[in-house]
Amino acid sequence: MLLALSVCACSGADPTRGGSEPIRVYDVLLKEQAQFKSGKLPGRRPLTDEEVAQGAKPATPNITSLTSQNGVTSAGATGKVLTGRASPTAAAVGIEFVGAGSGYWLVPVGSPDPMNNGELAFSVTVDFSDGVPTGNQRLRFVALDEGGRAGTQFDQPLCIAPLIPDNLNACRPTIAPPALVLSLDWDRSVDLDLELLTPEGKLVDPKHPSTAPSEGDGGIPTPLAPDVGVLNRDSNAGCVDGHQHEDLVFQEKPPKGHYLVYANLFDSCGEAAVRFVLSFHASETGKHPGTFEVVETYRTSGEILGIQENGGSGRGLYLTEFDSK
Question: Structure pTM?
Fold first, then answer.
């Protein structure tokens, strides 16, 4: 069933619209970006658990089923798949991020499914911006008929982890985050590497991605001691991924000693310069008993010129140093 043009002209949707939104939605069936519409998501508010327990039924058209592989994603993540079905009178499904953004996304539903009482399937992928609100959040769905009339909205809970690794502490404060995370961010598509010189004289970099004195296959020792720091990625290696963020994560406090931190421009990727931010994040006791929180304990920024690229032939630009006691 195709949605009437008065409701959604999804085919050929302007890819520049919705670019500043917390999410961007793509229609899996049409293999293109969904249509973005400004304003509030139409429809009646979602039913409460109490209303459902008392036998309240959603107004049609309505979302009858919604499935996600898991309820966890992260800021900056792409390709989160959600599939579902809507009642037979639906023509499209609207999707918004609750509490943020200036509008919602529309996708047409597919053909009737005779195995599910003629309900209409839909499938989307969702990309999350780096600045999307983190913690326990919700995506809100609503079905619309051919005339644009919306039924009862449906909420899908979602845990969104921050860019800085926190062991999902943002969603469950009783989970302890890493004891220390060193994070390097930068503003150009260059191959910039976070480096750490350990008290034993080992230089941690993408080729030697842990602080362990000796490393096994792949550079990561097995089993991994909790006080060993590990680089979580070699971002933008070969100038291709565009992620522009690296973390060195210590689940427990680093071993005693003096540490030096560097940023090495492995490849400028044709850029004249790159600006960067180095930050430290530590675990602290939360405001409530049995909880934890992540606190930024250090921040500095600077610039590296493209002519300073070294292809890994030398140590990078010195940024700071710290002692673990």
Answer: 0.85
